[in-house]
Amino acid sequence: MQKITKETYIKWYEDMLFWRKFEDKLAAVYIQQKVRGFLHLYNGQEAVLAGALHAMDLSKDKMITAYRNHVQPIGMGVDPKRVMAELFGKATGTSQGLGGSMHIFSKEHRFYGGHGIVGGQIPLGAGIAFGDKYHDSDAVTLCCFGDGAARQGSLHETFNLAMLWNLPVVFVCENNGYAMGTSVKRTASHEDIYKLGLGYEMPCAPVDGMNPIKVAEAFDEAIQRARTGGGPTFLELKTYRYRGHSMSDAQHYRTKAEVEEYKKIDPISQVKDVILSKKYATEADLKKIDADVKKRVLECEKFADESPYPDKSVMYDVVYEQEDYPFLQHKI
Amino acid sequence: MRTIQFREAICEAMSEEMRRDESIYLMGEEVAEYNGAYKASKGMLDEFGAKRVIDTPIAELGFAGIAVGSTMTGNRPIVEYMTFNFSLVGIDQIINNAAKIRQMSGGQFKCPIVFRGPTGSAGQLGATHSQAFESWFANTPGLKVIVPSNVYDAKGLLKAAIRDDDPVIFMESEQMYGDKGEVPDGEYVLPIGVADIKREGTDVTIVSFGKIIKEAYKAADELQKEGISCEIIDLRTVRPLDINAVLDSVKKTNRLVILEEAWPFGNVSTEITYQVQAQAFDYLDAPIVKINTADTPAPYSPELLAEWLPNSNDVVKAVKKVMYK
Ligand SMILES: Cc1ncc(C[n+]2csc(CCOP(=O)(O)OP(=O)(O)O)c2C)c(N)n1
Ligand SMILES: [Mg+2]
Questions:
Q1: Closest residue by CA, ligand 1 atom 11
Q2: Do the chains contact at A152 and B129, CB–CB below 8 Å?
Q3: CATH for A6-317?
Q4: For A38, which residue in chain B has the nearest alpha carbon?
Q5: Residue A237 three-state SS
Q6: 0.95 cut: is pTM over it?
Q7: How far is the CA of B270 from the centre of ligand 1 (A)?
Q8: Which atom of ligand 1 is nearest to the CA of A180?
Q9: ipTM of the predicted structure?
Q10: pLDDT, tens digit, for every residue of A165-184?
Q11: Please, how many CA atoms are within 13 Å of residue B228, restricted to the half-sphere of its CB?
Q12: Which segments constitute the Transketolase-like pyrimidine-binding domain (chain B) (predicted)?
């Protein structure tokens, strides 16, 4: 893993702030009905992504996750304008407006989606790793899912197969405390999700998911293990989501005080504190970054706003590889 | 009569039946403490307690199977799927177990269970969250499939489903839970397998079911202005199919349009089309027209989604086509 330097901290600050503001912008335009459907925001969980990206080799490693998926592709190199355009349902979006908020994909940047069925992406992540191993690649796949998804049968079948076939995959449970309105403690007889690895003799551990340094270190070990033929690892990232599950969530299942408690260990402020105390940058420098982030987010909105909707024929064009597939007519 | 919301009709039907019969329980994601993802079980945890109103982890295969298993020792479960899209994770338990236990055991075990939740599209939710599997379940011997379109039917039919001794798939819609309608003050039960003539008419029969039937009402209003009289039949139950109600109407109007929110290949409309041509060929004055969703996964983008879905305009066009106007 590259050393964690002054530049790393500045990058983390800038990236995490951008992700946060990008999501805040989506919440704002959702109210204006420019983005519709479900909208699941990543606010609070940014350290997981920042730390993971630091440990990954972005020239080859891969990532797949669930529907809380807007900022991961941006972190992996996708133009945020195109992500925003996808949420607006525009032709310039990452899936030409076909996928929407839960389905961001980028083959170019090795981001494998964006999946809406809870737990459905867990076997896919292992399958991507299977393909890499098959083709003698030393790339590693980060297969991310929530604490709720950890209760699906797909996880257990996949864990067993990934160990049996020694696949180069890191299973990443982003435990943000809740699956919709259901707290982790209401879903199992114990709260240590990472222990699910034990029954499969998969190396597993809990990680402080609010601190990008701790995250990067844990990922580095897991990724190196996978890259050098050591097989899967299961990491449970203890993190927190600040916003509701989606946009229509009254959040009666938790207190405001609980949310405030987590904001005290906010990943962005943790990184900012280090930057200021170690004098990596001044308040004025950071203000400049803040202003730049704000400007870039506005540019995304403008781009998405001004882009056209996709042509109706796209609806058919993207379904099959076969160019002249004979679709049935559905109306006259 | 009282005016209540669709979600309240669901809640009343479940609650009344649970008061009547101790062996009934409600199980699913967010049904208890959250009062239901769409508030269709509001207050039920308070009334019946955690033994009978049971929150599950996200484990559709496991809890579907556990519910089916419990019918073998005397329970009558109601399983809520947050949407039927997620029932696919547990569909093995529905098709291979619930639908077959009675037959495989030579009639020793009955399987009185209701799987309920929303079906179909509900706005820009994308490809995996906009699917209608009525015809998948209706294809399976052993199951019954009910898809109500209004508050009154929903309550009466859900009570019938819960009382039924066979497995019933009961499909609602996110976009109907807020609908209001009148229900009687007292209890009532509606028969499974009986269609309902929602509007009488003379020129053309429109058959539909579920929330999309509203597009037929709009079209009929429009066509009325042009002097075209539509008879609208709400199937209410898809399996068993009340084909006689359709045949009687077609024998009167001699023209048939079918409106169904589902992919066009081998769906409920296809079966109706077959039966009508087989049993009332000589009564038809025009080929039957069916209107469905596009033959693709649901697109997210708003303009594409509008094209993908059937609407009242499509119904107007179809009616005019079968009337050669
Ligand atoms: C199979 C399936 N069941 C239910 C849902 C509805 N649903 C969407 S997100 C969600 C909660 C998932 O929680 P978690 O895995 O902890 O992820 P988080 O939202 O916290 O990121 C549920 C129940 C779904 N999309 N797919
Ligand atoms: Mg969660």
A1: A179
A2: no
A3: 3.40.50.970
A4: B125
A5: strand
A6: yes
A7: 34
A8: 11
A9: 0.96
A10: 999 999 999 999 999 999 99
A11: 24
A12: 4-179
